[in-house]
Amino acid sequence: MIHYKERKDRIHIITLDAVIAEDICERLGHYAGLESVRVIKPAAGKSMKVTAEHILHSAKETLASKIIIFDVRNQTRPMLQRAFSDIVRFNRQDLNRYCYSLLIGDGPVNLAEYGNSIHLFQNYLADLRVDFNPAVYFCSLFLRYSYEETQLALYNDNKLPTKIPSRHLKYFTEEDLTIKKLSQYFRASEVHKSERMKKRKSRLEKLRKLYEKILAEEFGDDKDELVKAMTKEGCSLPGESLRIHLYPFHFEEWIQELMKKEEEE
Questions:
Q1: Which of 80, 133, 143, 174 meets the CB 3.0–4.6 Å disulfide criterion with 95?
Q2: How many structural domains comprise the chain?
Q3: Which distant-in-sequence residues (6+ apart) come within 8 Å of 88 by Cβ?
Q4: Which residue segment(s) compose the domain that 16 sits in?
Q5: Angle ∠(87,130,25) on CA atoms, nearest 5
Q6: Each residue of 129-169: pLDDT tens digit?
Q7: Are 251 and 138 in contact (CB under 8 A)?
Q8: Of residues 109 and 83, more confidently modeled
Q9: Distance between CA atoms of 73 and 32, rounded to whole angstroms?
């Protein structure tokens, strides 16, 4: 069995979404201790959008990376399934030893249909663990769309939504708020570099309070358990080793920890 031990300080982001790729790059690029790490976004030619084929053709490039971040949202996963399968197959013998996979998703596809029960995450996480052998799983509340919104995307050439889920608009004063603008705000991209981390921390506290409101409204009695997903340890479920973490809480810390863990092997 061939192992790829000589991996570089590189992180591969596997996604079709330029907004989430930008958010990850900026968060990691301005985090102390990760300055020397190269973050690689999916690439295409000039004036071209990244396609599943572009990612598939570059799958073997991940063999030189220490961390691979997969966008496993319910809409993107089918489009990237072939590329995901190849990347995991190429790296499987080294996962959790010489490299690590980290997932960003939106939760079970039938979550709202069955009353937003936290227990629906158990089978969902088990499937992800088998398919990706991940070190960490993050869920983004702002990437969870209703069935109607998902169907609309399918009819629109399966384009990824650009606006936040409609049910969350009530928490904001701006109408038609986009994911891009929201992401930029919470990572304080408009703030000067010297003040950015301080401002980002204060805005993260705003996000924490907002998440608590959303969890209370959408998950009811399960809210107290899911609040733990904003801690470094995450939210655990009975009989499942993979935990729920809410993006972007402690995201950079987890990346840094996995990079150091690999160096200690």
A1: 133
A2: 1
A3: 95, 101, 131, 132, 133
A4: 8-160+219-264
A5: 45
A6: 999 999 999 999 999 998 888 888 777 777 888 999 999 99
A7: yes
A8: 83
A9: 29
